[in-house]
Write a structure and sequence with these properties.
The complex is a heterodimer of chains A (682) and B (120).
Chain A: H1 2-31, H2 36-55, H3 59-76, H4 84-102, H5 107-120, E1 145-152, H6 164-172, E2 176-182, E3 200-207, H7 211-217, E4 226-234, H8 240-266, H9 271-277, H10 283-305, H11 316-342, H12 346-369, E5 371-373, H13 375-392, E6 396-401, E7 406-408, H14 409-430, H15 434-439, E8 446-455, E9 458-465, H16 472-481, H17 493-498, H18 521-530, E10 534-540, E11 544-552, E12 557-565, E13 568-573, E14 577-584, E15 593-596, E16 599-605, H19 606-609, E17 619-627, E18 630-636, E19 638-646, E20 660-665, E21 671-675, H20 677-681
Parallel strand pairs in A: 6-8, 13-21, 16-18
Antiparallel strand pairs in A: 1-3, 1-4, 2-3, 5-7, 8-9, 9-11, 10-11, 12-13, 12-19, 14-17, 15-16, 17-18, 20-21
Chain B: E1 4-8, H1 12-24, E2 28-32, H2 35-41, E3 48-52, H3 60-68, E4 78-83, H4 87-96, E5 100-104, H5 108-118
Parallel strand pairs in B: 1-2, 1-3, 3-4, 4-5
Classes of the chains: A alpha+beta (682), B alpha/beta (120).
């Protein structure tokens, strides 16, 4: 059924979220095992997964979670301590639940986890699954029977929101009936408390329903009421005489029912007074309740002042499609702008400008929707660092900063693997074992800092560890051994460090399960390059290593500067462009430097770089770019202007072409290549 | 009596299920994600409240107690959603003033039966 499937989908999404929270809480708990708030949060997350899971047909998830919850309940009530072991097992259990939600679970793992958890339980109590569930369906009893039902609700029955009259109504719908109300307890009017139920009823009911079904009418009040249900006979053998007699009394008393009820609803008293009068609570308890009520009122007012955040869930593909459409729109708009500029029609110009403004806004908004804080990825890393450091016998604290830095969803997803690998490397090769650290006079606990921040049109992610650092000499020796560089090659320390990103390079003496999984740092670099990002590395031997990853905010659309060389068009990312100046080659014999307000800036010619044939014009343009902190000029024939650039990838064949990061479609339908400034100048 | 029902649950999936079931049956539904949210949204005629017990912020028990103390809702039926392992919570809920309970997991029909029973 469609609706059922929808519920199940909603549950899955929710479960994934809850499992995420669960993981965070568990890790928090590890740092602060006595924190009751966190323990409660863990418990609640599991409880919700269990409850909702059972509701939407995931019985396996519900029963497994129940086992875990049972153990954690012991921890919650302080019967067992929150140990590292318990947390490890709970984390495993959390992973298993995740696998079940995703449908990739295995039974053996579940058994293992449950066995481990049960071993933690001191008394190995049987789970409290005494079914308190009343059957709601009963076998039909086709024979008509007559029942005598005496129903005396507690005097305070109204206070639980129960309306005895509606219960009687429900009962009466079951068949032929007579209701007798007993009113002898009702005092004279001045002494009457209308909020107490002082009456009780006898009902004679002839129905085909079973006793259980009759009892179900009173399901919510049965425990507190005086309820007797007796069968007085099947329909054939009713005592005619007594039946008639009772019937007559009923007719009389029915009127009183009406009156009494109307009066009951007319008068009101403060509930506190009422409760204390009923002897249910003391005056002081009422006072406390009043204080609570006022507190809640106050909270309610302050809650009203808080901004309401509401959100909707949308499948990611829809967003991707939207971005694609916006990309097409921007391209079409560029064509319109170009066409309008060729016409001398003021109205067309007006419309074109309006469309341009709208599509700009639409683009910014659409890309904004896809922006996600990077924090979710960071939390996953906490778990990674924890598990790995335990495995390697190291002690490492991971600090994260800038979790709310926003990045395009696709970028975040594709950034995950490279970052995992970089972190693994820091844990495995960077941070030393506690003994080694103590011997070096460092704190036994290593520290890895993971930070993200905005940096112009880019996001800068840094992984800083205070481990052993990287020795450039060792890298050099290794690179020579591996045949990556010649034995007499002269390279700076900084360039030597970058060699670890070269294909086929691995400095680990033995391949551990952590870093040596067949993917090297060269894959990391390639992944980051594919995101149009850059990775760099700084290290001070003995002090630690800093790996910086710069990633552009988005992959889909950028602001570009369109330039021309001969009849080829190129786009430069506008975020890299600083200014444009004219280049007049007075003496072409000089080094490729221009004097930019007293500062010497080197330049490269695009024409020469790409071997574009033809004669350079007399006056060329220099686009001054900022690349990796350096200013570089790029010489072109002509600067055309700003261009909304929808990035299209070049495909596998061209992905290794240096200096080009993609292509775009221009306003007139022709193509322009997007320049990779960083690659061009290096 | 008003045919408006408020559902209070921190689980969005349960909320959705309760809400759709009741809406299909012709009730007006107000959704709230915990006790505090429920109190903030509680105004005007509400015929019945269906609340989860275990919620962050303000839980179900406290919500029931608070709502019962509000003159306008002192007789309003309040149904709590419990699980089998929460036998004690059921007692606590009743003491706080809950009208009835539905044991999780439940089917939409069970929910409708209870709604029909309490909202006449």
């Amino acid at each position: 059924m469609f609706r059922e499937e929808m519920h199940r989908q909603a549950f899955k999404e929710e479960a994934l979220e809850l499992l995420g929270e669960l993981e965070i809480s568990l890790l928090e708990l590890e740092a602060d095992p006595a924190n009751d708030d966190v323990i409660n949060r863990v418990f609640r997350a599991m409880h919700t997964i269990k409850g909702s899971g059972a509701m939407f047909g995931f019985e396996d998830i519900a029963s497994f979670t129940h086992e875990v919850e049972t153990i954690f309940d012991l921890a919650r009530t302080g019967r067992i301590a929150v140990t590292r072991e318990l947390l490890s097992l709970t984390l495993l259990a959390r992973d298993h639940i995740l696998a079940m939600v995703e449908g990739t679970d295995s039974d053996t793992r579940a058994e293992e986890v449950i066995k481990g958890l049960k071993a933690l339980n001191p008394k190995s109590v049987s789970p409290e699954t005494t079914p308190t569930r009343e059957p709601l369906t009963c076998a039909l009893n086709p024979d008509l029977c007559t029942w005598r039902i005496r129903f005396a609700p507690p005097k305070n029955v109204f206070m639980s929101g129960t309306n005895p009259a509606s219960l009687l109504e429900e009962l009466c719908e079951m068949g032929e009936h007579h209701v007798i109300m007993h009113v002898k307890d009702i005092p004279s009017l001045p002494r009457l408390n209308p909020e107490k139920c002082l009456v009780w009823w006898d009902v004679i009911l002839t129905t085909s329903k079973s006793e259980d079904e009759i009892r179900d009418v009173f399901i919510f009040v049965e425990e507190d009421s005086d309820l007797t249900i007796q069968m007085v006979g099947s329909c054939q053998n009713i005592d005619e005489e007594s039946y008639k007699l009772i019937g007559q009394i009923l007719v009389e008393k029915n009127d009183i029912t009406k009156d009494a009820l109307e009066r009951i609803l007319l008068e009101r008293k403060p509930i506190g007074q009422l409760l204390s009068e009923a002897g249910l609570v003391s005056a002081s308890q009422v006072e406390a309740a009043l204080a609570e009520q006022q507190e809640v009122k106050r909270l309610k007012q302050s809650a009203g002042a808080e901004p309401q955040t509401s959100s909707i869930r949308v499948p990611a593909q829809k967003l991707d499609y939207l971005v694609d459409l916006v990309g097409e729109l921007v391209t079409a708009q560029a064509r319109l702008t170009q066409f309008a500029s060729e016409q001398s029609d003021a109205r067309l110009h007006g419309i074109s400008e309006e469309i341009e403004r709208l599509s700009d806004e639409l683009r910014d908004n659409t890309l904004g929707i896809r922006m996600l804080p990077i924090g979710t990825t960071f939390t996953r890393f906490k778990r990674l660092v924890r598990d790995l450091s335990q495995e390697l016998g190291k002690r490492i604290a991971l600090e994260t900063r800038g979790e709310d830095t926003e990045l395009d969803k696709t970028v975040i997803e594709r950034l995950n693997d490279p970052l995992v690998h970089l972190l693994r490397n820091s844990i495995d090769h960077g941070i030393e074992s506690p003994e080694e650290r103590l011997a070096k006079g460092k704190k036994p606990e290593g520290r890895i800092q993971l930070s993200a921040e905005h940096f112009g049109g880019e996001v800068l992610i840094r992984i800083i560890d205070d481990g052993a650092g990287i020795d450039p000499e060792r890298i050099r020796a290794k690179a020579v051994e591996k045949g990556i560089i010649a034995s007499d090659a002269l390279i700076s320390d900084k360039d030597a460090l970058m060699l670890i990103f070269a294909p086929g390079f691995s400095t680990a003496e033995k391949v551990t399960s952590v870093s040596g999984r067949g993917v090297g740092m060269d894959v990391v670099k390639r992944n980051i390059d594919a995101l149009r990002g850059r990775v760099s590395l700084e290290s001070a031997p003995g002090q630690g290593t800093t790996i910086s990853v710069r990633i552009p905010l988005t992959l889909a659309i950028i602001d570009g500067l369109q330039i021309q060389v001969e009849d080829s068009y190129f786009i430069m990312p506008l975020s890299a462009v600083e200014e444009c100046v004219e280049l007049i080659r007075k003496d072409s014999g000089r080094a490729d430097l221009i004097n930019l307000r007293g500062q010497m800036v080197p330049y490269v010619s695009l024409r020469a770089g790409f071997d574009i044939p033809g004669q350079a014009p007399e006056i060329e343009q220099v686009v001054v770019c900022n690349s990796q902190g350096r200013r570089v000029g790029i010489v072109v024939d002509r600067v055309i202007g700003e261009h909304q650039t929808v990035i299209k990838s070049l495909g596998k064949v061209y992905q290794d072409v240096r200096g080009i990061s993609g292509a775009t479609i221009k306003g007139d339908g022709s193509m322009a290549l997007i320049l990779d400034i960083a690659a061009l100048v290096s | 009596m008003s045919k408006t029902i408020m559902t209070v649950d921190d689980s969005a999936s349960v909320r959705q299920m309760v809400s759709l079931t009741l809406k299909d049956a012709g009730y007006t539904v107000i959704e709230a994600r915990d006790g505090r949210d429920a109190l903030a949204k509680l105004s005007g005629p509400v015929g019945m409240i269906v609340t989860d017990l275990n919620m962050p912020g303000m839980g179900g028990i406290e919500l029931i107690r608070t709502v019962r103390a509000m003159p306008q809702y002192r007789f309003t039926p309040i149904v709590m959603l419990t699980t089998e392992s929460q036998a004690s919570a059921k007692e606590e809920g009743k003491a706080a003033g809950a009208t009835g309970w539905i044991v999780k997991p439940f089917k939409p029909d069970q929910l409708l039966a209870v709604a029909k029973k309490l909202l006449r």
